[in-house]
Design brief:
- This protein has about 325 residues and is an alpha+beta fold.
- The strands form two sheets. Strands 8-7-6-11-10-9 form a six-stranded antiparallel beta sheet, with helices on both faces. Strands 1, 2, 3, 4 and 5 form a five-stranded mixed beta sheet that branches.
- Strand 6 and strand 7 form a beta hairpin.
- Helix 7 crosses helix 9.
């Protein structure tokens, strides 16, 4: 069945639902939310829900929905141009009745919007002191303690970090749309070649990896075309000179071994790994991990993440699994 709304270019009847299997997209959306601990949902052009909310916080799905004042506050979780009551600002964010921010991103195909992704709610920068939420509690018709306990479950995040979350999920979605559209309209081959900038995706990927792992320093290195060495394409906590000049031959050093063998290394001051013992010469790091970035059997590069000796963060297999899941989603767009 074809839908009249959300039309894509080249065909007056194709919609978001025609281009993406919604069950498959729901799984990706659920996985992204589970990795980042931030809610996500997808809407059509007219504001109709295309997916169930992923990671919807208890405050939204229970407390607000069961509030005696729910009719009064209804619509504050949806922007006005989609039929709600919240006003979107210049940063494409809007604030709900509990003072939390959500961010909306248009999903486009060949410069035509066919849907929206909403990321949030989140608390930007820091929570206010408990007593400063009294007005919001009264607005919701609930006890302050009830609101406060629910707010403690909401992710606190910087503006830059939430922008990275939006960037990755948007790029994944748009690239899937392009691939699907090309399969339906093979004559429009140029549509897919106009993919998002890989450096832009890598920067967003590293930002999100820092968020979910607690890393202090890190980089993403990709295998050069000649397949002989790794170069840094995105970094945080490294000097500009190091980021520009560092090269690692495949098979040499920990990153080179990870790329050659498609192997993950977790390095901790309390653990010994004879394969990499000779390379452990960075005493400022208390813990680090090197994880291959691959597509199928092909290694595209590696992600290096480190926690300083002074940091309480220590990496383990749970961190590795989380970052691997994040990498798996990002490589859809890469």
């Amino acid at each position: 069945m074809l839908h009249k709304e959300d039309k894509a270019p080249g065909s007056e009847s194709l919609s978001f639902k025609d281009l993406i299997d919604l069950q498959e997209w729901q799984k990706i959306q659920d996985s992204f939310s589970a990795i980042t601990n931030v809610g996500v949902h997808t809407l059509s052009l007219n504001g109709t829900a295309l997916t169930s909310p992923s990671g919807e916080p208890r405050l939204c799905k229970e407390i607000i929905k069961n509030s005696v004042l729910k009719e009064k506050i209804n619509g504050l979780c949806v922007p006005t141009f989609l039929g709600g009551r919240s006003v979107v600002d210049k940063n494409l964010s809007f604030i709900c009745c509990a003072g939390m921010h959500s961010f909306i991103s248009p999903i486009s195909l060949a410069n035509k919007v066919i849907g929206y992704i909403i990321v949030g709610p989140v608390i930007l920068v820091m929570r206010k002191p408990k007593e400063q939420y009294l007005n919001e509690a009264e607005e919701l018709g609930i006890e302050l303690d009830t609101l406060w306990n629910a707010l403690l479950e909401i992710k606190v995040i910087s503006f830059h970090s939430v922008q990275s979350l939006v960037e990755i999920i948007k790029d994944i979605c748009e690239y899937m749309l392009k691939l699907s559209y090309q399969s339906l309209m093979p004559k429009d081959k140029d549509l897919v070649t106009a993919s998002p900038s890989s450096n832009k995706i890598l920067d967003a990927l590293l930002d999100v990896a820092f968020q979910v792992s607690g890393a202090d320093i890190g980089s993403i290195m990709l295998v050069d075309d000649n397949r002989q060495e790794l170069s840094i394409y995105s970094s945080k906590g490294l000097s500009e000179e190091i980021a520009k000049t560092s090269r690692v031959k495949i098979g040499q050093g920990i990153s080179g071994m990870a790329a050659r063998d498609n192997a993950t290394f977790v390095i901790d001051t309390n653990k010994q790994d004879n394969r990499i013992k000779e390379y452990l010469n960075r005493p400022i790091l208390g813990s680090s991990m090197v994880i291959p970035i691959n597509s199928g059997d092909r290694v595209l590069g590696v992600m290096n993440l480190g926690a300083l000796e002074s940091s309480p963060t220590r990496f383990d297999n749970n961190n590795v699994n989380l970052i691997n899941r994040l990498i798996g989603l990002a490589t859809i767009a890469l």
